[in-house]
Amino acid sequence: MESVYCKLFNEYSTVEAGGGLRPLAVAPARFSFSWRDAKRMRILVTGATGFLGNNLIRAILANGDEVVAAVRSSSDRDPLRGLDVEVVVVDFEKSADISFAINDVDAVVHAAAMIQLGWSKLEVSRQVNVGYTKRIAEAARRKNIRMIYVSSVDALGVGNADKLGDESKLDPPNPGCSYVVSKREAETEFLIEVANGLDGVIVNPGFMIGPNDWKPSSGEMMIFLQKSLIFFVPAGGCSVVDVRDVADGIISAIQHGRSGERYILAGENLTYKELWKQMASVMNSMPPRRRMSNLLASTVGKVGDFLSRFTKEELVVNSAATRMGQLYHWYSSDKAKQELGYQISSVEDAISDAYDWFCSMGYIKK
Questions:
Q1: Are 34 and 255 in contact (CB under 8 A)?
Q2: Are strands 232-233 and 12-17 parallel, antiparallel or unpaired?
Q3: pTM for the predicted model, two decimal places
């Protein structure tokens, strides 16, 4: 299977594509700046109706800046209701649409993504996560506009309790599922544009929790836990962060991030058992009591793979998802704290605010 890997060694990357290797000189940090001292910002945000994107545009508006929300023609506009934003419909397959959308903006934040935690839809994931990123980055470079690419900690190497993952940990994608592979490849394409002159910064958020999760996204875990009796929990863990902290971190990356750099925007490193216990406590639900063994997780995943053969869509429970659940996605945000002034809020408060929002919107009942 053709793949693309990017490894940074100081100022150089090696990109493997179609079996060939070539050096990629990543443009050194040219400058960092603060628009706040100069003028009101006008920022284009993709994924504005999604979990992170919607919280981001609310944070930008709260700062007194302007938002251009780039949406697809099929996007649900409910998340934008009541928000003072300019909406522009974009076909991200068309470079002309993208070029028109980013006219007269100071910065672009590309937060849209396709999340497929499974083995299927790799080419579609590449089309969206890699193709869209490349086109937007090319347009931003041509117009000399700063761009923030929202990746994920899943695109980085996996950390653990003994050694937290950081920005330098770029092991091959693990597991090599559609989402993880396509997000890593998207980072590679973005860094190629940086090498060609794009003023660009990558941010890698952790597992986000909070309000305005319209789809829902990560909040689906809370809804499932509140409505179901669950006996087993994945044995791994994740770095849990308030989505509003990530939004603030992105704004700071626009203002102060160094071009060509990446910043982990993670939070509190918890096992899934600890996280689900906190969720259950907030919701007055019964938490799972036992962690899945690797053997059980593997068996459950393989059963999901088998049953997926008889369904139109790959089941949510599959061997890629169960394998990810057994890993410790634990990370350090020290670089973002030092360079961006990134701050991490209480996970319990994020869970509580998410729960209140889901109840107010009718997703779950108290």
A1: yes
A2: unpaired
A3: 0.88
